[in-house]
Amino acid sequence: MSSEEIYLSYHGVLLPKETHSLESLRFAQDFTFKDDDVVAVVYPKSGTVWMQEILPLVLNGGDLTPIHTVPNWDRVPWLEEKRLEVVVDKLASPRPMVSHLPYHLMPPSFLTSKAKVIYVMRNPRDVMVSSYFFHQMAGFLPDPGTFDEFMNSFLEGKVMFGKWTDHVKSWKHTELGDRIMYITYEEMVQDLPAALRRMSDFLGRDLSEETIQKITEHCSFKTMKDNVMSNFSLVPKVYLDNDKSPFLRKGVIGDWKNHFSSEQLAKFTSVIDKDLEKESFTLPWSLD
Ligand code: PPS
Questions:
Q1: Which strands form 116-121's sheet, in the order they lie side by side?
Q2: Mutate which of 39, 43, 49 to test ligand 1's pocket (most atoms within 8 Å of Cβ)?
Q3: pLDDT in tens, 156-213
Q4: Which of 25, 101, 208, 211 could form a disulfide with 62 if both were Cys (CB 3.0 to 4.6 A apart)?
Q5: Domain architecture of the chain: domains with CATH
Q6: Predicted structure pTM score
Q7: What are phi and psi of 100, to 5 degrees?
Q8: Separation CA 176–CA 30 (nearest Å)
Q9: 240 Cα: distance to centroid of ligand 1 (angstroms)
Q10: Rg (Cα) of the chain, in Å, rounded?
Q11: Cβ distance 187 to 195 under 8 Å?
Q12: Distance CA 99, CA 85 (A)
């Protein structure tokens, strides 16, 4: 399939046609945010599905019903995807959602509402590796080619949702004040209870230590991998084939070390550094 058949270009950003359409993007643009809505914004392969597990539990005080009865894509829908229109009326407030959109493509009502955002960032080297394997299992995405070829596509932003650096820049330059909280995938892997406490405080929840521990257990990589409502085993293999590469693949920090050559690392680091050289913020990981 050609790139035109696979993607639609939305303000210059590539989106898979399988899950996005001009209608779904119009629906997202016209979407009316409520002040108590909560959106986890995540560049692809940085912890989106993890947030679809975490958010309902943090918001509802640890009631496991949603994660045991509703598939992740309907439980915490993507703002920009076709499913939102189908499920939006079933979402109870406070409504949890996820999005891969860059900040400048968020709808007007989001900007004027008081809806809160948790922005999750992951080391781009691990994002790229995760995405490389995802392209092998996702029937609606192009063949990634060799690792080297895919690295070029990733660094040039010729992948879904565009350049990683553009995404991060857009969300680091918002005027959302205390409506946005930043967290990293790595913080979540290293100390999930601490990450949950931060999210709970940010969302004005007062979760007991017992509830934090319960959510930690149910949002662990292992538990999620066994949860049919979260591991995409309900999706026909023609779309997502867990036999080729599982969606919940490794869930670790630093898998890039198993895949990058020293030349690839040097190139990757220099392109990311150059893209961010004029930025005032620093990345939470060393890219050396
Ligand atoms: S997508 O397709 O954009 O929605 O993918 P996304 O969910 O953002 O990212 C998938 C990666 O997140 C990992 N993941 C987890 N890691 C640790 N713990 C938990 N609970 C967890 N849940 C999902 C998932 O395994 C993918 O990373 P890789 O490196 O490929 O394993």
A1: 96-99, 38-42, 116-121, 180-184
A2: 49
A3: 999 999 999 999 999 999 999 999 999 999 999 999 999 999 999 999 999 999 999 9
A4: 211
A5: 3-276 (3.40.50.300)
A6: 0.98
A7: -105, 5
A8: 20
A9: 14
A10: 18
A11: yes
A12: 14
Among protein residues, the one whose CA lies closest to atom 18 of ligand 1 = 221
How far, in Å, is the centroid of ligand 1 from the Cα of 48?
A: 7
Q: b/e per residue, 220-247, with b = 16+ CB within 10 A?
A: eeeebbebebbbbeebeeeebbbeebbb
Q: Is any atom of ligand 1 closer than 6 Å to the C-beta of 219?
A: yes
Specify the residue for token string 């409504």. 95
Measuring CA to CA, how many Å separate 135 from each of 119, 166, 225, 277?
23, 21, 19, 29
pLDDT at 233: 97
d(Cα 287, Cα 124) in Å, to the nearest integer? 9
What's phi and psi for 41, nearest 5 deg? -105, 125
Q: Give me 88's structure tokens.
A: 């939006």
